[in-house]
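Tutorial handout. Part one gives the primary structure; part two gives the three-dimensional structure as tokens.
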Amino acid sequence: MKPVTIYTQPLCGFCTRALRLLSAKGAPVTEIDTARVKGSRAEMTQRANGRTSTPQIFIGDTHVGGCDDLFALEHTGKLDAMLQD
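Part two.
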């Protein structure tokens, strides 16, 4: 399974929903808390082509987007294929 990187912040309901879905899929997730990891918000914004909201989710090197984007992939049946190596 491809590794997933998710940039989050505390008390973010969308972050929690995205993490729950990824956990249910058994995806190997690296969570980066933008409130605690110095420079991570700037890194996230650069990687996400200027998007500043959390979460920002990457499957491998592919930018998925935010929580709604992740759930849209799940709804259309494309998430499982993206997670596979």
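Part three, for discussion. Residues 13-25 form the longest helix (13 residues). The mean pLDDT is 97.
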